[in-house]
Structure formats: C-alpha cells, structure tokens
C-alpha cells in the first residue's frame, strides 16, 4: 500500500514539473496604421491626396457621416468633407488603401462619389488672404502662429511677419475658408482681423 502511494506521488511530481516547462508563444500580429495612428516612419512621407465629388449631401450631418466612414479605413491620415461644394479631400497612405476603396466607402455611406482628376487645377483654385494679428511680441509668437496655420489641411503656404504684424496665407477655398483661418489664429491666443482676400496672381 505504501509502495502504491509513493508511486502516485512520483507521478504527480513529474506532472507538476512538466507544467513548468516553457510553452511556445505565438508571434504577435503586425499592427497596421488606422487613420492618423500610422506612426511608422517607413510610410511617413509616402502619403497621397485624392479629391472626390460627393453628391447627395444636404447638411453637416451628411458630411460627418462621410468623414467618419472614410476615417475608419486603415491608412487614412485625414479626411475633410465640404458639404457646400460637394467635395471630399482625403490624405492617405497608398500602401494600405487606394482611391477606389475610398470611393466605394463613401458610396456605402449612401452618397454618390466620383474621383476628381486634379491635373493643373490646384493653381487656379488657390486663394490668398492677408490677416492682421494683434498681440505678437517676439519671433516665438510669430512662429507659433505660422506653425498653427501650416498644420491646417488646405493651407498651401503661410507666412507670418512680426514687423508688420500680418500673415499671408495661401489656401484651397474648396477645402478651407478664411473664417477657419481666423479661428485657428485666435485659438493660438492672438487676435486675428481679416485685411483682404482674393485669388493669387501667377508669376
């Protein structure tokens, strides 16, 4: 009886030691960028831009539906929908998504979408506005405003002059309005006053 008990104890001990052996771990799945979270440097700088004509939008809620649907796709950096001009501009990484997938996603949201070929149209649609900026006291102030303007989607060029307390902003009116530019400046803590706005001249 004692011999049988010892044999069972040995078997249990062997099993317990066996449980301590390292178990193989499955390799982790690769992480793909989702929207702006595409943080890998190998895809940074390879972004592309596509502009779509979106028909059927009637209000800001429609624009919001399109924007949310597009941003759910992997590899989307930014999506801006202009309900007044029936357009959507999308910045994306071609390694993860293409124009056709984006177009189909917009249509799945319930709207008709067509890719716009932009050859030679960007210069014709460029507008420029001059803004008076009150409250700047040093180059750090002007740099803060300039960086904030350059970060806005639709802004092509922004220059802030501390000496004249003015900013000159070149932008795409199909994506952006001068009111949004003024709001962006105000959000940096300075007062923005529109001086003029109009089309840029070709050199």
Could you give a quick summary of the protein structure above?
Pfam families: HMA. This protein has about 200 residues and is of the alpha+beta class.
What does this molecule look like?
It comes from Salix suchowensis. The chain is α+β, with helices and mostly antiparallel strands and 203 residues long. The chain has two domains: 35-116, 2-Layer Sandwich (Alpha-Beta Plaits), CATH 3.30.70.100; 127-199, Alpha-Beta Plaits (2-Layer Sandwich), CATH 3.30.70.100. 31% of the residues lie in helices and 28% in strands. It contains five helices and eight strands; from the N terminus they run H-E-H-E-E-H-E-E-H-E-E-H-E. The strands form two sheets. It has a four-stranded antiparallel sheet with strand order 2-3-1-4, covered by helices on one side. It has a four-stranded antiparallel sheet with strand order 6-7-5-8. Strand 2 and strand 3 (87-92) form a beta hairpin. The longest helix is centred in the N-terminal third of the chain and has 18 residues, at 2-19. 24% of the residues are buried. The model is unreliable at 16-45 and 118-123 (pLDDT under 50).
